[in-house]
Amino acid sequence: MQIASRHLDKITIFDVTGDIDLATSPELRKSLLRELRELHTPRVVLNLTSVRYIDSSGVASLVESLKASRDAGGRFIMFGLNTTVRQVLQLSKLVRVFEIYDNEEQAVAP
Amino acid sequence: MLCVVRGALSTLAQTLGFQEQECHAVVLAVDEALTNIIRHAYKGKNERPIAASFRRIQVSENGSNRAALEILLEDHGVTVDPKELCGRPLEDVRPGGLGLHFIRESMDRVQFHRRNGRNQLRLVKFIRDSKPQTSC
Description:
Structural class of chain B: alpha+beta
Mean pLDDT of chain B: 87
Largest interface: A-B, 23 and 24 residues
Number of helices of chain B: 3
CATH class of chain B: Alpha Beta
Structural class of chain A: alpha/beta
Radius of gyration of chain A: 12 Å
Number of strands of chain B: 5
Largest sheet of chain A: 5 strands, mixed
Number of domains of chain B: 1
Helix content of chain A: 25-40%
Oligomer: heterodimer
Low-confidence stretches of chain B: none
CATH topology of chain B: Heat Shock Protein 90
CATH architecture of chain B: 2-Layer Sandwich
């Protein structure tokens, strides 16, 4: 898994590539929580277009990030979920809890 | 190594005739089961051995035989408390505790045993396209 970050005004976009699993989710969790808790970025956007797979440890990292953003009064947004990733979120019954968009344009819209 | 197992298992599931969504489900279940073994039975030590076997079987159900994929996972880790295998209510939005839920939702049968100092997990998923064969 690879993570790259971009900045757009007060928005940080993380572009993730590869699989999010037991081995890689700690790195994603660390990046997201640093952005939300330490840098206090008001809107953090996760680009999952190139993510092929996510497991429960990855979902746990997303839930923790969502909670951190709510605690800080910010927004945690995801876009570009493929069928496999969406299927896992649906299985967790969390798909409605997250703010999810189809593409980046919608995710960064005012 | 989990990604290697996922890749191999996906190919196996396709070969056995599972549809795309079912292939994802089988891969997810086994990935979560292996993750649980590493995390709980082996306390995070990912170099410990896990034996895995996969075979096509016939399962008797309501007088009919159905084709299925049987997956057996075996480890030498600590005994897992059955209470830990109960999962948690999904209404409680918090990190963790989803792995077992994913396994149960993805597979048709999930059985756990402790035998001869080993944890054994048996997972079964029916091959939907296979037509039931009535027993004589």
